[in-house]
Amino acid sequence: PSCLMLSISHVLFAYLNVGQYDSLIILGQLGEQQALAAKDTARLIDFATRISSGYKNNKKFQLANDYLIKASELVEQNDAFKGIWQVRIAYSRGLLFRDQLQLDSAIKYMKKSILHLKEINNNQATYYLPSLATFYADNKQYSEAKAILDTIPPQTFTRDNVVYSEYLYAKGVMLSGFGDFQQATISLDSAIDLRILDKRPREVTRAY
Asked: What is the pTM of this model?
């Protein structure tokens, strides 16, 4: 069963990357049944978060939130799973609220994710800051977005297109909010180029 669940986990990751969300949910729920039968809490948490991603991308937000709550409850009941899972679940809830345009809640959970990450690996916390800056910028809190972006050397993310495109997007929206439309356009165009390069059409749409 453990080999089967590991295989399922790998396939779920592939389904997420290619946008096959219905298949992700169906297979994830099969994996969930296997994990319940095996009393494998780690896999239950893993499958719950992946199923939640499928529902989120299908815009079934309540179901997505239900699965994240389920995962969070399992983590809180088991100290061995705290730390990185607290980071991932809080981050996922931030993205979920962002997709519902509930940006105050998105900011709350992204800050919680960063706080958990600082407790276990302060260096990696920097990689979550562009997402927080994006939420502030999208919420028209441009000064807060600028304060975060000013702490990040731009070259920090040049080898990670996903994070760097988020940084450029946040910078573009922030600059637009301050009326610097020329520089905002340059940043947003660069973000779009990176997202197209990484074949992330949904994120390209966000940048537009």
From this structure: 0.85
